[in-house]
Every structure is written in structure tokens, then in C-alpha cells.
Design brief:
The protein is an alpha+beta fold. 29% of the residues lie in helices and 25% in strands. Helix 14 links the parallel strand 17 and strand 18. The structure holds ligand MTE, hypoxanthine and dioxothiomolybdenum(VI) ion. The site of ligand MTE has 21 residues, from helix 15 and helix 17.
Length: 750
């Protein structure tokens, strides 16, 4: 089935926040953000701006009737700064005016004074000064120090992986209007409608039932709208509450880049120990996460870093520690992979380091250590239905890995100005919110008396095509034409207390809830059919729009059946609730079974480096990916391609840069380069692993949103291998992204 949004998107008919037809008397907002990174004694003088014709109101912290607090995990982030400033881009005031232009003109007239304080921009600096978001966490397995003493080979080094800008096509935005009885309706471009509802209620001092949040779709979220869509939605709600007029706020790209957090940069140190057979016996890593100025989702992201610090490998002795370091950058946030990629980059660096010293390809070590059934993860979960070797073997069956390595080696022997590099990148990603209580969802299904169907779930459509998958669940369960089914907007009044659409788990959680609701309705309808056709309920099936009795088509079709049920006063509405079984995690022991299942895969990457220019291209990427039993291979392949591009961008060219004052230097699309069609491999082959899928996945079709991003990590190492082939003096570096500048320096380093 095609993405149900395809036609609307191509014709430009799909609705995003900025397409909503605003009501008469709608006001427009602009946000004044801090220009400095750290200060106290903040004073904001709005006297001149207030006079500007067309300005209705300028909201300050003092205008907040409830709590000036938007923190989710920790209560450490004001909506609007009060006395202190903690990062450049921190919202100070919201200007509400007749037009966006007026609001932005008036913004320039606001005078801000303060007393400057020293700025911290790196995680290491923060650690030295004891600046942390919360307590460090560590996972332990086996006995690391004893094991290192017995290892034949031990290597240590440091790594750095940079942040990443989400660059969703649709910038952050929201629209709010007042309903009767003091209620407010917010349309938001958010992954977390309930997050917006909860925080808006808190800031406005209202009960949650007074706030309705509605989401049609997002022009991309990528994690950047899991938590950070909230402030803008709360600001319009606040303004709307004050002025009794609809208010709209859309950040322009520049404001969005400046005011929102990104993927967390990590500075880390590793120590890896191997035995004589290249078995990794011990791993110790200290991760320093650059969390930014407030917690946001950092503690949860730090946790996922620990969960993925051993990637697809079994390592019997592990000690990993993560510090969430408080700096004066915008609070960093969720980004596809949610700390997992940062964890996996370090173990891959450690393997690359070992391989370099042992003078063998890294993939020998990777292969020797692949996870197998009944191995234990450092967090105590026993690995089951592991597909690490299966994906590797299927790829090896298609392309002889050694022959590619030989080809690269021979090419490098005979070429001077260009060198090739290859790398393998296995992935293993845990599916479930790491915070176990978040793993639940609901779906509300109405069958209307004419046989058409309306579906509401907690799932937010952000381009990942979850709505298409939801429609498939209903169409298949009812066995009716998909055209009879409509996906409603995601709305907190219809489906309440939702977890954000995130963790790649949206289709699993909401799909399973929807399946339960549909199954309950099918049962009910079967009873009606049995009654009408005077047959046993067990003999009835719904098939292709018809009632089938004992495998024989009757003359009762879906529409007539529904109509009869309606007249028999049968309830044609059902609410399904699903909570993932089997998962648990004990934080006091840091042990448990946090993931419903894992997604596996393998990529083989070859690159060519131009050794005169320092430029490179990716020749080919061959992937065998564990989709389970894909319920929509077109959608799922699209997710792999998109995630791969994003992973390649993170690892090779996207360079988030702040200066020492915490000012974002890469604050336009001319200074922040993201991958385009030319940056991707000339030849990409993505093959599905032949497998039966997993019972905890919807229709056995495994979650696909985030895992493939991590294939991009292999590109870093493939390029590095090419540099190594050119320059024997080159010392391996683990400092991503691998920009052409870095390649150039590496090629000619002495
Ligand atoms: N694909 C598109 N087109 N747009 C997005 O914003 N977000 C990614 C991924 N794929 C995203 C996307 C992220 S970060 C996640 S967690 C998942 O989709 C969320 O959706 P899912 O749970 O339905 O996979
Ligand atoms: N993934 C994504 N988002 C989340 C998670 C997670 O594991 N936990 C809380 N928010
Ligand atoms: Mo995705 S980072 O879990 O929104």
C-alpha cells in the first residue's frame, strides 16, 4: 500500500501548521531570545517596544499565571527567563502583534541588560567544574579490571562525536484559539501532544482537560519535536489566554536554528581489551554528554547511550559510565537514535583502533564478536532471536566481503591519487522506550452506520508513514477497502495520556492498540452476522468486504452488516489499549529486560578519497536489514534510506559549531551543510533479512525509524581507512564529522 499522504504531498495539499486557515483577529508572535550565553541580574525593558503600533502585548515571565517551568524529566527549565540566562537563544519575551512583521520589528526595540557570567561550551569543561544535570550512571557486567589484566591486547583513546541539527523541513510552530469556558485549543507541530497539553496546563495554571492539543502532521520531527515543540505551543496558548484572540507562532529558520537544541555532542574515553583470538574480553567507556543548559531529555538519552555501548557485540566484561554535563548551549534533545548512535560510535572507534594496531581489517574483530542467542547484554537482558550473524551471513552470501577487501587493497596498490576504503557496520537497536512506563498506547475506532471507519490513535504522523501503517492494520483486520477508512488527526480529546511518537515504537504501540480495538469490533459484528444469517459465530469470517460462512461467501456485505448492527443497537465504537508485556527495568540495579526486541542489520560501505583535494565519495552501500516481516516494504525502505542519509550527514559533513561565548556559528544553511542526493552512495542496495519477524512487533513487522541511521557510522571508518592507505604516518582519529578539511589534514599529516 502506498503512503496515504503521497497524493496530498505531491500536490501541496497536505496541511501543516502554517497552512491552517487562521480565524479573523488572529495575532502573530515573535520570540526574543538571549544573545549571550550566561548571565545574571537580567532586566528587560519593553517600554519602547510596547508603544510600537500594532503590538498587542509583550509577554514576560511575570505574565505567567501558573508555573514558569517546562521541564519534563527534571524541573529545571523556565519558559521565559527570569533573573538568569543560561544559553544563547534562550527565550526572554514573546511579542504579540497584528502581524509577524510588526512583532519582529518591535522585538528590536526591547532592551536587555544583565551581568555576564563565564560560559561553558564543552562537556569536558563542565565536568572539570563539576557542572552536571544529574548523577552519573554506570552499567556493569562481569569484572572489567580483572579481565583487562588477562587481555593480550589493550587499547585506549578518546573520541568526539558532534551534535546534529534536525533540520525538519517544517520549522517549529503552533496556533492556539480560545474555546468557551476558558478552554484553549492548540494546533501544534509536536511529536508529543500530551507533553504540550501537560506543560501548557502547568504554565497556564489550568487543569489538563481545559487544553486540547491537535496534530494533523509534522513536516519532520526526527526527535526535535519530542520535547522542543512544547515552548512555542505554550507561548501561543499563554498569549491566547491573555488576549482572548487566536495566536500563531512559526519560527523562521534562523530563530529555529538558534533557539532549539540538537543532537548531543559526546566526548568519551574508551579502553578495550582483546584476547589472542580477537575476542573482546573487556570494555570500559566514560561518556561525557554535552547536555546543554537544562535537562530536557538528556538523562533518558544518556541511558540509551549505555544500552547501546556494546552495539551488536557480546562483551563479557563491561563498565560504562555516562555523565550528563551541564553547559551553556541550548538544551540538547532527542535526535533519531536517542543517544544510541553516540554510544555505538565509541565501540566502533575502539574496534578500529585495535584493528589498526593488530594490522587486520576491523571487520575481522567485528565478526569474531557478534552477539548470539543467550548472550547477556550489560544491562542484564538475555539476547533472544538475535539476527546479527544472520544479517552478516546473508550479506556475505550476496557479496564476498573478503573479495571486496582484496579489491580495495589491490586498487590502493595501483593508485596514488585516489584511495579506497571499506568498512562494515553492524547495528543492534533496542525497541521500547527505555523508560518502561511510557510503553503504552490507545486507539479509538468508530464504525459509522454507512460502513465507513474513522480511526484515532496516539500516533503522530511526521513523514514516517505511521498513518499508512495504522490504516493497513484496520483495513486488514476488517478486511475492507482502505478507501472506507480515514485516519483522524492526533487529538488529546479523542486519545488521552499518550506517549510521544518516538523510540521507533509508534507503529508497534499504537498499531497493537488499534488491532485490539478492531478485533473487538470484528467479534461484535460476527455475532450480528451469525444472527442475521442464522449460523454459528465460529463459522463466520469477514473477508474482502463480505461475510463468509463456512468459507462460502454470503450475500451480506460489510456495509449491510454494519447497518444491521447499528439498528440492533450494537456499539460500533471501540477503544483499544496496549501496554508492552515482558519489559521491565530496575534502575537501582541497572538490570532488567528493557526492550521488547532488538533490530539488527549490517552494512558494507566502500568509499573513494581524492587524495589531492581531500574530497570523497561513497561508492556503494550494501545493507541487509532486519525488518522482521515488513508490513509495508516501500515505507520501510524509505525509512532506511532517509535514516542512512541522516547518519551519513552526521558522520561526514554536518558540523554544528559554537564559539567560546556559546554563539551558534553554523546558524544558516550556507554554513551548515546537510547531505543532498550527491552525498549519498552511488550504489545503494538494501535487502530484507529473510526472517519471520517478532510477535511484539505489529504484524511481526519490526520498528524501523531509527536503527538504520547507525549504518552511517561505517562511512566514517571507510573514509578513514582510505586516508590510512594514502598516508602511512596518519594517526587514527575519532573526531567526527569526517569533513573534507579533516580528510585533507589527515592525508598530509606527518
Ligand atoms: N521519518 C520521517 N520522514 N520524519 C521524521 O521526523 N523521525 C524519526 C523516524 N523516521 C522521522 C522519521 C524518528 S526520530 C523516530 S523515533 C521515528 O521515525 C518515529 O516514528 P515511528 O515510531 O513511527 O518509527
Ligand atoms: N526513545 C525516544 N524517546 C524517548 C525515550 C526513548 O527511549 N525515552 C523517553 N523518550
Ligand atoms: Mo525519535 S529521536 O525517538 O523522536
Amino acid at each position: 500500500m502506498k503512503n496515504i499522504d503521497a497524493n496530498g504531498h505531491v500536490r501541496g495539499e497536505s496541511l501543516f501548521i502554517d497552512d491552517i486557515l487562521t480565524k479573523q483577529h488572529t495575532l502573530h508572535a515573535a520570540v526574543l531570545a538571549s544573545e549571550i550565553g550566561h548571565a545574571k541580574d537580567l532586566k528587560i525593558d519593553i517600554s519602547r517596544a510596547k508603544q510600537f503600533p500594532g503590538v498587542e502585548k509583550i509577554l514576560l515571565a511575570s505574565d505567567i499565571p501558573g508555573e514558569n517551568e517546562i521541564g519534563g524529566i527534571l524541573l529545571d527549565e523556565p519558559l521565559l527567563a527570569e533573573n538568569e540566562i543560561h544559553f544563547q537563544g534562550q527565550p526572554l519575551a514573546v511579542i504579540i502583534a497584528e502581524t509577524e512583521f510588526i512583532a519582529k520589528q518591535a522585538r528590536k526595540l526591547i532592551k536587555v541588560t544583565f551581568c555576564m557570567l563565564p560560559v561553558i561550551t564543552s562537556a569536558k569543561q563542565a565536568k572539570q567544574q563539576g557542572q552536571f544535570i544529574n548523577d552519573a550512571r554506570s552499567f556493569y557486567l562481569g569484572d572489567v579490571s580483572a579481565s583487562f589484566a588477562n587481555c593480550k591486547y589493550v587499547y585506549e583513546d578518546e573520541t568526539f562525536s558532534n551534535g546534529q541539527e534536525h533540520l525538519y523541513l517544517e520549522t517549529q510552530g503552533a496556533y492556539a484559539e480560545k474555546m468557551e469556558n476558558g478552554c484553549i485549543k492548540i494546533m501544534s507541530s509536536t511529536q508529543g501532544p500530551t507533553v504540550v497539553q501537560r506543560i501548557a496546563a502547568r504554565v497556564l495554571g489550568l487543569a489538563m482537560h481545559k487544553i486540547e492539543v491537535d496534530v494533523t502532521r509534522l513536516g519532520g520531527g526526527f526527535g526535535g519535536k519530542e520535547d522542543q515543540a512544547t515552548p512555542w505551543a505554550v507561548m501561543v496558548a499563554l498569549a491566547c489566554n491573555h488576549l482572548n484572540r487566536p495566536v500563531k507562532l512559526i519560527l523562521d529558520r534562523h530563530d529555529d536554528l538558534k533557539m532549539t537544541g540538537k543532537r548531543h555532542p559526546y566526548e568519551s574515553q574508551f579502553k578495550i581489551g582483546l584476547d589472542e583470538n580477537y575476542k573482546i574480553m573487556a570494555l570500559e567507556i566514560e561518556f561525557l554528554q554535552n547536555s546543554g543548559a537544562a535537562a530536557d531529555l538528556s538523562p533518558a538519552i544518556a541511558e540509551r547511550t549505555l544500552f547501546h555501548a556494546t552495539n551488536s557485540y557480546f562483551i563479557p566484561n563491561v563498565k560504562t559510565t555516562v555523565h550528563s554535563c551541564k553547559t551553556n548551549l541550548p538544551p540538547n534533545t532527542a535526535f533519531r537514535g536517542f543517544g544510541g548512535p553516540q554510544g555505538m560510535y565509541v565501540i566502533e572507534s575502539a574496534i578500529a583502533k585495535a584493528a589498526n594496531h593488530l594490522n587486520i581489517p576491523a571487520w575481522h574483530i567485528q565478526h569474531a564478536n557478534l552477539l548470539q542467542d543467550n548472550d547477556t547484554f550489560s544491562y542484564g537482558q538475555i539476547a533472544q532471536q538475535v539476527k546479527a550473524k544472520d544479517t552478516w551471513d546473508q550479506l556475505q552470501g550476496n557479496i564476498n566481503i573478503k573479495s571486496i577487501q582484496d579489491f580495495v587493497n589491490v586498487f590502493n596498490d595501483y593508485n596514488i591519487e585516489t584511495k579506497k576504503g571499506m568498512a562494515m557496520m553492524p547495528i543492534c537497536f533496542g525497541i521500547s522506550f527505555t523508560n518502561t512506563p511510557m510503553n503504552h498506547a490507545r486507539a479509538l475506532v468508530h464504525i459509522y452506520q454507512d460502513g465507513s471507519v474513522g480511526i484515532s490513535t496516539g500516533a503522530v504522523e511526521m513523514g514516517q508513514s505511521v498513518n499508512t501503517k495504522m490504516l493497513q492494520v484496520a483495513a486488514q483486520t476488517f478486511s475492507i477497502d482502505p478507501d472506507l477508512i480515514k485516519l483522524e488527526t492526533t487529538n488529546t480529546t479523542r486519545v488521552a495520556n499518550t506517549s510521544p511518537s518516538a523510540a521507533s515504537a509508534t507503529a508497534d504501540l499504537n498499531g497493537k492498540a488499534l488491532l485490539k480495538a478492531c478485533n473487538a469490533l470484528v467479534e461484535r459484528l460476527k455475532h450480528v452476522a451469525a444472527d442475521v444469517l442464522v449460523a454459528g459465530v465460529d463459522t463466520i469470517e469477514l473477508k474482502d468486504g463480505w461475510v463468509v460462512v463456512n468459507q462460502v461467501k454470503s450475500d451480506l456485505d460489510w456495509k449491510e452488516l454494519v447497518f444491521k448492527a447499528f439498528w440492533q443497537r450494537v456499539c460500533l465504537t471501540e477503544n483499544g489499549h496496549y501496554a508492552t508485556p515482558t519489559i521491565k527495568f530496575d534502575k537501582s540495579k541497572e538490570k532488567g529486560h528493557p526492550f521488547a526486541y532488538h533490530v539488527y542489520g549490517i552494512a558494507l560501505i566502500t568509499t573513494t578519497v581524492d587524495c589531492l583535494r581531500g574530497t570523497y565519495k561513497i561508492d556503494s552501500i550494501d545493507i541487509v536489514h532486519d525488518f522482521g516481516k515488513s508490513m509495508n516494504i516501500g515505507v520501510d525502505l524509505g525509512q532506511v534510506e532517509g535514516a542512512l542519509a541522516q547518519g551519513i550527514g552526521w558522520m561526514t559533513m554536518e558540523e554544528v559549531a559554537y564559539n567560546d561565548e556559546g554563539r551558534l556559528l553554523s546558524n544558516t544553511l550556507s554554513t551548515y551543510k546537510i547531505p543532498d542526493v550527491f552525498s549519498i552512495a552511488e550504489d545503494i542496495n538494501i535487502e530484507a533479512l529473510e526472517t519471520e519477524g517478532h510477535d511484539l512487533a505489529i504484524f511481526k513487522s519490526k520498528a524501523v525509524g531509527e536503527p538504520p541511521l547507525m549504518y552511517g557510522i561505517g562511512v566514517y571508518f571507510a573514509i578513514q581507512n582510505a586516508i590510512k592507505a594514502f598516508n602511512p604516518n596518519y594517526k587514527l582519529k575519532f573526531h567526527s564529522p569526517m569533513t573534507p578539511e579533516k580528510v585533507m589534514m589527515g592525508l598530509y599529516e606527518k
